[in-house]
């Protein structure tokens, strides 16, 4: 059975582990240098950094589980704007990751629908995200879900630039 629950401070270790593993699975092959990837993971997904992020009231984390086993997570950032998103109250879907072994379960759609509903409950009228330009599977997924390409952004991993596509959807 699939369940989705809001993450709490006590879940920081689970989130940090899921972050490290899922980021490596989904983006590791896009990063030019393995040492840069490891350094990025150590800073972005440390337990300390995760606790800091989960304590910020504009962030909400959710964990998706199968039979009580955490298989992925997401991070919504409220009141987050982007220059190409025309909205007074937008929400950023900063992270949505599912462990590779569980992607065939097709739970990504259920998770995204849940997150859009949560964003709307918090009075967001649009949701935006960025995707690595070569992550074709993710780009097609968002396009199928009526997200529109609204521009580009730059993502840095240890000072190296990576180009992302920015997508947005009114909710």
How are the secondary structure elements laid out?
Blueprint: E1 2-6, H1 12-27, H2 34-44, H3 47-55, E2 59-66, E3 69-78, E4 90-98, H4 108-121, E5 126-132, H5 136-144, E6 148-157, E7 160-170
Parallel strand pairs: 4-5
Antiparallel strand pairs: 1-2, 2-3, 3-4, 5-7, 6-7
The main sheet comes to: 7 strands, mixed
How many angstroms separate the termini? 27 Å
CATH classification, class level = Alpha Beta
- Estimate percent helicity: 25-40%
* Poorly predicted regions: none
Instruction: Output the helix-strand order.
Output: EHHHEEEHEHEE
Strand order of the largest sheet: 1-2-3-4-5-7-6
General form: globular
The count of β-strands is: 7
Q: What class, by secondary structure content?
A: alpha+beta
**Strand percent estimate:** 35-45%
For the record, what is the CATH homologous superfamily label?
Gcn5-related N-acetyltransferase (GNAT)
In the CATH hierarchy, the architecture is 3-Layer(aba) Sandwich
Number of helices: 5
* Rg estimate, integer Å: 15 Å
Number of separate domains = 1
CATH fold node name: Aminopeptidase
- What is the averaged pLDDT score? 94
Brief digest:
The chain has 171 residues and is of the alpha+beta class. It has helices at residues 12-27, 34-44, 47-55, 108-121, 136-144, and strands at residues 2-6, 59-66, 69-78, 90-98, 126-132, 148-157, 160-170. It contains 5 helices and 7 strands.
């Amino acid at each position: 059975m699939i369940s989705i629950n809001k993450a709490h401070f006590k879940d920081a270790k689970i989130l940090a582990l899921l972050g490290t593993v899922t980021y490596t699975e989904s983006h590791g092959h896009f990063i030019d240098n393995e040492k840069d990837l490891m350094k990025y993971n150590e800073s972005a997904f440390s337990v300390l950094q995760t606790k800091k992020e989960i304590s910020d009231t504009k962030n909400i984390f959710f964990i998706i589980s199968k039979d009580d086993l955490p298989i992925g997570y997401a991070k919504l950032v409220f009141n987050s704007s982007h220059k190409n998103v025309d909205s007074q109250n937008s929400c950023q879907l900063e992270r949505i990751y599912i462990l590779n072994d569980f992607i065939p379960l097709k739970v990504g759609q259920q998770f995204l629908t849940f997150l859009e509903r949560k964003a709307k409950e918090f009075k967001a009228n649009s949701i935006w995200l960025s995707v690595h330009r070569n992550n074709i599977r993710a780009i097609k997924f968002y396009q199928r879900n009526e997200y529109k390409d609204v521009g580009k952004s730059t993502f840095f991993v240890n000072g190296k630039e990576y180009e992302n596509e920015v997508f947005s959807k009114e909710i």
